Amino acid sequence: MFRLVEETGFTKVRSAVVPRFRFRKAATQASAEAFGVKAVVMTALKPAGA
Amino acid sequence: MTEPAEIPASLEGVLKDEILRMYQEVADNPDSEFHFYHGREAAELFEYDAEWLARAPGGAVDSFAGVGNPHLRSRLQPGETVLDLGSGAGLDSIIASWQVGPAGNVIGLDLNPSMCLKAQAHAASTGARLDCRTGSMENIPLPDASVDVVLSNGVINLSFRKRRVLEELYRVLKPGGRMSIADIVSAKQLSQSIVNDPKLWAS
Predict the structure, then answer these.
(1) C-alpha to C-alpha distance for B16 and A36, rounded to whole angstroms
(2) Could you report the predicted ipTM of this complex, rounded to two decimals?
């Protein structure tokens, strides 16, 4: 996602993990962890000259 | 979060139907239990301002299905035009409307026309202004360079064509515009069994 945002032309791409995100069901959460699934908040700018 | 190499059109159609069904279910039956936290419980988990949640209509709060809090870094200013991509029952749009004030504009976009109607009704009940459009995030029905800020919460991960979605966001943003999006990402390539299962993808 981060790479896709940069490749699209956005600059100043920043992301931070949402620390308290988790799935409600334990089995879903375990599967998510196995795949490295997490929630992030991402910010980015469209350059002023674009 | 990667792009599947080939996307069967039939699978994408099935996926969109499942997304519509899933989030309609959250809106219609917010007391049900889903794979994800939703409603007030989720909003509090993601540190939505207690004052916002007290002021927002109960229906918008109860049907909230975000994965984080894009407002923490959005820095919305009075007078700005905001696009809420995947506006759902309208909680994020309503909060944005309060921040941009009467000189600003909030445009919601949702795949589901009934969700747009619901979001607009929720906004109107608080005096917030929301112009909700029905459409897809891969073909945003807005002109080039027409918004200052894009907000989104748990939506882009639902698309098979994330690159296309990001290109659309870039197109509709004004030069110097910005986005603040909360979303789900995966460090590993999802297995084909997950990619091909609309219920898993939609949740």
Answers:
(1) 24
(2) 0.92
Structural domain includes residue B4: no
Residues of A with Cβ-Cβ distance to B71 under 8 angstroms: none
- Residues B90, B119: contact at Cβ < 8 Å? yes
Q: Is A3 on the interface with B (CB under 8 A)?
A: no
Query: Least CB-CB distance to A5: which of B154, B166, B187?
Result: B166
Q: Which amino acid is residue B93, in one-letter code?
A: S
Q: Is residue A50 part of a domain?
A: no
Which tens digits make up the pLDDT trace of B165-182? 999 999 999 999 999 999
In contact, B169 and B148? CB cutoff 8 Å: no
Chain B hits for A16, CB-CB cut-off 8 Å, are: 73
Closest chain A residue to the Cα of B33, Cα to Cα: A24
CA nearest to A36 within chain B: B187
Q: Could you tell me the pTM of the whole model?
A: 0.87
Instruction: Report the CATH number that the domain containing residue B29 is assigned in CATH.
Output: 3.40.50.150
- Domain assignment present for residue B119? The answer is yes
Instruction: Render pLDDT for B181-195 as a digit per residue (tens, 0 to 9).
Output: 999 998 776 666 666
Task: Give the gap in angstroms from C-alpha A30 to the nearest C-alpha of chain B.
Answer: 12
Q: What is the pLDDT of residue B195?
A: 60
Domain containing B163 equals 9-202
Range(s) of the domain holding residue A33: 2-45
At A40, the pLDDT band (50, 70, 90 cuts) reads: very high
Q: Please state, in angstroms and as integers, the Cα–Cα distance from residue B172 to each residue in A10, B6, B63, following that order.
A: 13, 27, 27
